[in-house]
Amino acid sequence: MKIKLVSIPVGDQEKALEFYTSKLNFIKKIDIPVGGGNRWLTLVSKEEQDGPQLLLEPAPKDFEPSKVYQKALFDAGLPYTQFDVEDVQSEYERLVKLGVEFSVKPIEMGTAKLAVFNDTCGNYIQIVEVL
After folding, report:
1. Domain spans, the chain
2. Phi-psi region of 43 (alpha: psi -120 to 50; beta: other; left: phi over 0)
3. How far apart are CA 24 and CA 92, in angstroms?
4. H or E segment at 16?
5. Section 40-57 average pLDDT
6. Which architecture characterizes domain 5-130 according to CATH?
7. pTM for the complete prediction?
8. Between the CA of residue 94 and those of 41, 68, 82, 85, 100, what are the distances in Å?
């Protein structure tokens, strides 16, 4: 088995696309209308364009249980997902300059350094550097 696609819930796909491409530097891989104003909209890392895709899933808009789950995670301050980075401190500084808000500043925890930011789409995202 291989991981090819992971989804993250977003209420507004266009807003999410803007954030994830302009701030996080992901690139759009697939963008297909699927009806109801929704899109099959995936992104990939610039460093791994044939790697796993991130689906910007409009579930909170169309499926109430997803909205409830997403809000519960956000209200608890829990990250929805995690992205690996080479250097958490550098990435933190780059994103802060772009106006990204962090709920957890870079901190070492055992064999990892991490930070958590708000993706403006209803999710906290954790970035991690393995030390």
Report:
1. 5-130
2. beta
3. 11
4. helix 13-22
5. 97
6. Roll (3.10)
7. 0.95
8. 25, 32, 17, 12, 9
